[in-house]
Specification:
Low-confidence stretches: none
Oligomer: single chain
Mean pLDDT: 95
Radius of gyration: 26 Å
Shape: globular
Largest sheet: 8 strands, parallel
Number of helices: 12
Helix content: 10-25%
Number of strands: 30
């Protein structure tokens, strides 16, 4: 047994409250090294040696990577407190792993065992319940639809008649969004994520001038209020994007600094390294990256903190928005985010707090800061496998398994799963405009654990490279839209909403296969299981089903060209032939 590979800590993703009664416990071991693991457990005030034989629970292997196996158990301590250890068996030996280390026989001293002192309801990670059933649609307001030409900024380009650049404007606005709510409702969207809408200099609005005002090119506050109300009447939530890491160059306090330098009353609002402050070349103050037009805010300054928290509260309180997406969230101090959460949750307890973080985000997901982060580890691996075909099926399954085991299950259920965004090339471009690849991307995203987000226009086949190419005007001429792709995506969203096993209310795991072009995964729950068999290859592939056949009685799900689901009796064959980039779904 490779003992140095055995790992557990009684916190974060290894031991956590799933609900007010249930503990989830995870153990990590070397891949294929240990044959079985059992959880030894007991109440710390009723720790009797004779109970150890009965107070033992087999742990389930929930996944593997190239290096590790993961073992899982859910347990409900009758008095909400637990001492526990692990009974591990390999081919060569049996041992007990506890906080005190490894033992050949059960240690009798309770102090050796891991401890979860008490399940406090207040410590439970509790994202809004509605998020698990939300399908998001990201809108870049400047490029979605121009509904009121009277608001057009000077020099506005005719809609869609030029390529997007970092500087040009096409006049998208709130009225344009309202004009197309029927379209979003038809698609099945029940959550809109708007990139920044506050007064700013640029077309992307991530360089805020006034956090308390709507940019006049989008409308005014009353127009925004009508938009939120119109969305809510259709059961659509609205999430705004805020940049609290940095302001824009024309933010009045920063302009005061540029004018008055060390005499400015706002000099402590920013991270200034020397005077005079210079924005040309490489700035001598902290910024987003090295972008001089985006000076970093000092969120430890009481005045800055007060201003930003008033902003966060104002838009929830006055306009009843449902969520905040927080730009460059990992570069803002944890103390600020803890106060931010308390501030907005006091106004609206079920507001959704989403952080933009591109890496392991466990420090922000302990229940005191964010409800979720943008799941870019999921994005990157999914694009690598389906769109770019850079990795084999086994490596993809291992990487997604690692993502799932990075976080507690209740964190995964609210994770914001995207395929692309305003910061990345579009999936049609990444997938070489192959619609069958795009369909597989959507099938996996919309059947995965978490809350999925579509980037505007992807569902009708829009393409585009890196920014600004990915920020083109939405295509509203129906004869230029891929309506077959739209119907396919709409049908998947409908499945997610109406079939519990397809959506966010089922367990997820991969099945190993000998064919590296084919991916097999399972969604299971109290009502049965769904088996997804995907061929991620431009060639037809033959796949043996012996490892995952399950029960012989099955129903196969088939989607027609119009997106209509048909269920028919089917038997999983011993060998299954899959067409190029084809898939089959079986219900058992």
């Amino acid at each position: 047994m490779i003992k140095e590979a055995v790992y557990h800590r009684p916190k974060d993703n290894f031991a956590y409250m799933y609900d007010q009664e249930t503990l989830h416990i995870l153990l990590q071991t070397k891949k294929d090294d240990i044959n079985s693991v059992s959880l030894i457990h007991g109440d710390p005030y009723d720790w009797k040696e004779e109970k150890w034989q009965t107070d033992s629970k087999p742990m389930k292997k929930t996944g593997s990577t190239d290096l590790h196996d993961y073992w899982f158990a859910a347990i409900k301590p009758p008095f909400r407190r637990l001492r526990y250890g692990f009974h591990c068996e390999s081919e060569e030996e049996v041992c007990y792993f506890t906080e005190g280390g490894f033992f050949h026989s059960k240690p009798s001293d309770i102090a050796n065992y891991f401890c979860f002192p008490y399940l406090h309801a207040v410590d439970l990670f509790s994202p809004p319940a509605w998020v698990k059933d939300t399908v998001w649609y990201q809108i870049f307001p400047e490029r979605f639809a121009n509904g009121d030409a009277a608001l057009n900024p000077p020099g506005t380009v005719e809609w869609g008649r030029a390529k997007p650049t970092p500087e040009n404007f096409f006049g998208g606005d709130f009225q344009g969004v309202m004009d197309h709510l029927d379209y979003l409702e038809e698609l099945g969207i029940n959550g809109i994520y708007l990139t920044p809408v506050f007064t700013a200099y640029s077309n992307h609005k991530y360089d805020t001038i006034d956090y308390m005002e709507i940019d006049p090119q989008f409308g005014d506050k009353e127009t925004f209020r009508r938009l939120v109300d119109a969305c809510h009447k259709r059961g659509i939530r609205v999430m705004l994007d805020a940049v609290f890491n940095h302001s824009g160059y024309y933010f009045p306090p920063f302009q005061d600094v540029m004018e008055n330098q060390e005499r400015s009353r706002y000099k402590d609002w920013f991270h200034l390294r020397e005077f005079p402050v210079k924005a040309d070349g490489q700035p001598n103050y902290d910024t987003f990256g090295f972008v001089g037009s985006m000076p970093k805010l000092n969120t430890n300054n009481p005045e800055v903190k007060d201003y930003l928290l008033r902003t966060a509260k104002y838009w929830v309180e006055e306009f009843n928005i449902d969520g905040w997406r927080l730009d460059v969230a990992n570069e803002v101090d944890h103390s600020f985010w803890r106060e931010f959460r308390k501030t907005v949750k006091r106004v609206k307890p079920d507001v959704y707090i989403l952080g933009e973080i591109w890496h392991d985000s466990m420090p922000w997901l302990r229940g005191d800061q964010f409800d979720a982060v943008m799941n870019y580890p999921f994005t990157n691996r999914t694009v690598d496998f389906f769109a770019k075909q850079k990795i084999p099926a086994s490596k993809f399954a291992q990487s997604i398994t690692k993502v799932l085991h990075m976080y507690p299950a209740n964190v995964n259920e609210s994770a914001f799963n995207l395929l692309d965004s305003h910061d990345t090339p579009r999936i049609a471009t990444l997938a070489d405009h192959d619609k069958n690849k795009i369909k597989l991307l959507y099938l996996f995203q919309l059947s995965f654990i978490g809350t999925p987000c579509l980037y505007y226009g992807d569902e009708i086949g829009m393409a585009g490279g890196e920014d600004p190419g990915c920020r083109a005007c939405m295509e509203w001429e129906e004869d230029k839209q891929d309506r077959e792709l739209f119907a396919f995506v709409r049908s998947l969203i409908e499945l997610r909403k109406n079939e519990p096993l397809f959506g966010n209310h089922a367990d997820f795991r991969f099945h190993e296969t000998s064919n590296e072009k084919c991916l097999v995964y399972e969604k299971s729950g109290k009502t049965g299981r769904l088996l997804f068999v995907l061929n991620n290859s431009p060639e037809a592939e033959l796949l043996s089903t012996g490892d995952f056949v399950g029960t012989p009685d099955s129903r196969e799900w088939r989607l027609s060209a119009e997106g209509i689901l048909k269920k028919q009796p089917a038997t999983l064959p011993v060998e299954m032939e899959l067409p190029p980039f084809g898939f089959r779904i079986f219900e058992q």
